[in-house]
Design goal:
Arc Repressor Mutant, subunit A; Nonspecific Lipid-transfer Protein, Chain A; globular; five-stranded mixed beta sheet; 241 residues; alpha+beta; 11 helices
Length: 241
């Protein structure tokens, strides 16, 4: 647990639990419906297994998370308690503030594995064709060795792969990583980037036209950017203010 502040203030008492590095991001993943340890690591690819175990134990001790046997009988699952579920408004409020006022992204913030996980959570499967659809994403200027990943929709079941899944690709999306992340966050217009060819799509024309309807973008993409800097300038150039 974080160092104690020695203050009776409820904000101080809450921050003793929630103020440690990674803790709120673990809560966010659980709010997104992630229940298995391995999937929590996929959602937060830069957290070590040791750190994740420590954070889960802290949250369990604070009665924010409970651990239970998996219904399959193999391993365990994690779920938020009533206290944990009440953090949804706190976490989303913090995300809203961060979209408006947090610093501009730097290269090291652009984690393609986390982007892959985010896209697979925000894919509009109902708008996609029946059967299997495979999307291949290829990025340049990535800060690590993950420059390519795949998102699969099989009749509404969405999967994310960082190795080739072994199926034919229906659409390939190519972009600078920063440009795509900015479009994902609503800082740029995805439609404008596609129309200008700065985000390039290869595949059948009908699927290319449908792609913007498949990508739901970040849940905070509609929040105005206010922090002075390059991202606000970009946002307003695209009429996002």
């Amino acid at each position: 647990m974080a160092s104690r502040y020695g203050q009776y203030c409820p904000v101080a008492l809450a921050t003793e639990i929630l103020g440690e590095r990674w803790t709120l991001l673990v809560v966010l993943a659980l709010l997104d419906g992630v229940t298995r340890f391995n999937d929590l690591q996929r959602a937060l690819p830069r957290i070590s297994a040791t750190m994740l175990s420590q954070r889960l134990r802290t949250l369990e001790a604070a009665h924010i998370v409970h651990k239970q046997p998996s219904p399959s009988g193999r391993g365990h699952e994690y779920a938020l308690t009533e206290a944990g579920l009440e953090l949804e408004g706190v976490v989303m409020g913090l995300g809203h503030w961060g979209q408006r006022w947090a610093r501009d992204m730097e290269l090291d913030d652009l984690d393609p594995r986390h982007l892959a996980w985010s896209i697979h959570l925000r894919l509009n499967a109902e708008a996609m064709p029946a059967g299997r659809t495979v999307l291949q994403f290829e990025f340049t200027e990535t800060p690590d060795d993950c420059s390519r990943f795949w998102i699969l929709n099989t009749d509404g079941k969405i999967d994310m792969c960082i190795e080739h899944p072994g199926f034919d690709v229906d659409l390939t999306i190519r972009s600078e990583l920063r440009r795509f992340v900015e479009a994902w966050r609503g800082i740029r217009s995805l439609e404008a980037e596609l129309a200008a060819g700065r985000i390039r799509v290869e595949g059948p024309r009908a699927l290319q036209r449908a792609l913007p309807d498949w990508l739901l973008l970040s849940a905070l993409a509609g929040v105005e950017r206010e922090h002075p800097g390059r991202e606000r300038t970009t946002c307003r150039r695209f009429g996002k203010d």
